[in-house]
Amino acid sequence: MSLMEVLGSGTLIVGLISFIFIKILRNFMCRRRNLPPGPTPLPLIGNLLQIKRGHMGDSLIEFAKLYGSVYTLYFGPNPVICLSGYETVKEALVDRGEVFAGRGRIPTIEKITQTYGINLSNGERWKQIRNFTFRKLRDLGFGRKSFEEKVQDEAKNVVEELKKLKGKPLDATKLFMDAFSNILFAIVVGSRYEYKDEKFVELLGIVEETMATLSSTWGQLHTIFPQIMDYIPGPHLKITSVSEKLMSFIRDRVRISQKTLEPASPRHYIDSFLIKMEKVRTYRGDW
Q1: Residues 178 and 225 placed together within one structural domain of the fold
Q2: Which range of residues forms the domain containing residue 150?
Q3: Terminal C-alpha separation, the chain
Q4: What domain count does the chain have?
Q5: Closest CA to 273 of 207, 189, 200
Q6: Is 29 within a domain?
Q7: What's 69's DSSP letter?
Q8: Is residue 28 part of a domain?
Q9: Which of 111, 173, 180, 229 is the most exposed place for a label (fewest CB within 10 A)?
Q10: 163 and 96: one domain?
Q11: Dist CA 195 CA 183 (whole Å)
Q12: Which CATH number fits the domain that encloses residue 220?
C-alpha cells in the first residue's frame, strides 16, 4: 500500500470519527435547549464522572444547590429530569400526578418481571393495576382498625426480639426491615414468618442482593447501556438466576391460594388478584 493510500485511509477514519462525535454533540445540544439547566454532559457518558461514586444522594443535593430544584442530568446519552425538595416533588407527583404518571425502565430486572407489576409496569396497564391494588388494600383493611392491629402485633414481636438482647448493642435496621416485610407478607400472602425462619431469611436476602446490585456500578451501567451490558459478564446478569428463587416462592403461594380459594371471602391480595383474573377471563372487562 502506498503512502498516499495510507494517508487517505487515515484521513477517512479521522473524518468518520469526527462526524460521529459532532453528531453526538449536536444531539446533546439540541436536547438541552428545551430541558431544565444542569451540569454540562460529556458525549456518550453524560454526567457520570460528576457523580460521586457511592454517594449519589449527596451529589444530587449539591446539583440542586447549583441549578435549582428542577435540573437535568445525563445518565449516558439519556437525559433525566431531577426534582429536589418537598414542594417540588409534591407538585409533580401529587398536584400533577396524572402528567407525571410514567414509569422509568429498569432493564436489569425486566427479563424477570416482563414489565408487569405495580412498580415496573407502565401506561394503561400500570394505572389499572394501581387502581385495583388501592381498592383491594382498602378492602383488606389498609388504613382501618384491622390493619392497625396487624402493625401493633408485629411491633410486639419487635419488642420481644429487643428484650432477648438484654441490653447488647444492635443495628436495628434489619430488625425493622424484617417487621415491615412481615406486615407486607400478611397483606399479600396472608401469613407472617418468624424472623429466623430459613425461608424468610432467604427471601429477604434475595431482595437485598437484588437492590444492592441495581444500585451498584454494574447495575447503573446496565440501566444506561442495556444493549451493551446484556453481553458483558458481570453481577448484573446474576439477578435473573437469583430472583428465580423469589419467583418460585410466589408461584408456590399462588398455587396454594388457587387450591383453597373461596371467591366470596378473599383472605389476602393474591386471592383478590386471582378472583379478578377469573372475572376478566369470563367477561373480558377492564380491571
Answers
A1: yes
A2: 105-287
A3: 70
A4: 2
A5: 189
A6: no
A7: S
A8: no
A9: 173
A10: no
A11: 12
A12: 1.10.630.10
∠ at Cα 121 (64, 185), nearest 5°? 95
Chain mean position to CA 111: 13
Neighbours of 66 (CB within 10 A): 10
For residue 269, which of 191, 155, 176 has the smallest C-alpha distance?
A: 191
Q: What is the mean pLDDT of residues 150-175?
A: 86
Label residue 98 exposed, middle or buried (CB < 10 Å: 0-12, 13-18, 19+).
Answer: exposed
How much is the mean pLDDT over the chain?
A: 80
In-domain check, residue 27? no
**Residue 79 belongs to what H/E stretch?**
strand 78-83
| CA atoms of 76 and 227, how far apart (whole Å) | 13
Check pLDDT > 80 for residue 35. yes
- Quick check: helix, strand or coil at residue 99? coil
Tell me if the pTM is above 0.85.
Answer: no
Whether residues 115 and 244 share a domain: the answer is yes
Q: At 205, phi and psi to the nearest 5? A: -65, -40
Q: Is residue 30 part of a domain?
A: no
Give residue-wise pLDDT tens across range 132-146.
888 888 887 777 777
